[in-house]
Amino acid sequence: MSTAARIVAVFTLLAAAACGDQIGDSCSISSECSQTGDRFCDTTQPGGYCTVIGCDYGTCPEEAVCVRFFPAGPLPDSVPCNHATEDAPGGTDDCTFDEICTLADYCAPRSAEVRFCMKTCADDGDCRDDYECRDKQAMIAHGGEPVPPPGEPVSDDPDKFCAAAPLN
User: Fold this and answer.
1) How far is residue 161's CA from residue 152's CA, in Å, rounded to a whole number?
2) Exposure pattern of 104-138 as b/e (b: 16+ CB <10 Å)?
3) What does the chain look like in DSSP terms, one character per residue?
4) Sorting pLDDT into bands at 50, 70 and 90, what band is 86?
């Protein structure tokens, strides 16, 4: 093997070793998240965030959960609802057919929903610097909620996930 080929091989191995391949890893370009193009680097997040866009329940890698985000807080014309009883048999039906009752208990348009695979966590120590482990209260305050199984409401004990901590 020529010297040039060895140098290329060494740099290729170093680059591959430096690449994060887990959801939630830092990144600056999508190829750092996946060489096959199935993951995206969200550079709008601190230090970049390896993710999958447009996930669904049960489709994220094992270290992650599919999380849906809506516009920050209720919109001026949002209707209050109860996420635990909305669309349940014998429950309430405050949201229209094209809305979802969020964990924060307001109706949000389905068309405004964006989904990402987010790294699961038990506490803030499982997340990178500048990130928080969002529990139910942080989800309500800062946004995001795990996508529930089809036909079910969001759990009252939803999976926690790492997301950018709010700026102080």
Assistant:
1) 20
2) bbbbbeeeeeebbbbbbbeebeebbeebbbbbeeb
3) --HHHHHHHHHHHHHHHHS--STT---SSGGGT-TTS-SEEETTSTT-EEE-BS--TT-S-TTEEEEEE-SSS--TTPPB--TTTBTSTTSB--S-TTEEE-TTSBEEEGGG-EEEEEEB-SSGGGS-TTEEEE-HHHHHHH--EEPPPTT-PPPSSPPPEEEEPPP-
4) confident
Q: Which residues pair with 146 in a beta bridge?
A: 67
Residue 125 φ/ψ, nearest 5 degrees: -65, -20
- Whether the CB-CB separation of 49 and 26 falls below 8 Å is answered with yes
Q: Which of 73, 79, 84, 72 is nearest to 99 (CA)?
A: 79
Residue pair 57/66 in contact by the 8 Å Cβ criterion: yes
For position 61, what pLDDT does the model report? 97
- Token pair for residue 129? 């610097």
- Cβ neighbors of 109 (< 8 A, separation 6 or more) are 98, 99
**Which residues lie closer than 8 Å to 148 by C-beta, 6 or more apart?**
57, 154, 155
Which of 54-58, 84-88, 124-128 has the least mean pLDDT?
84-88
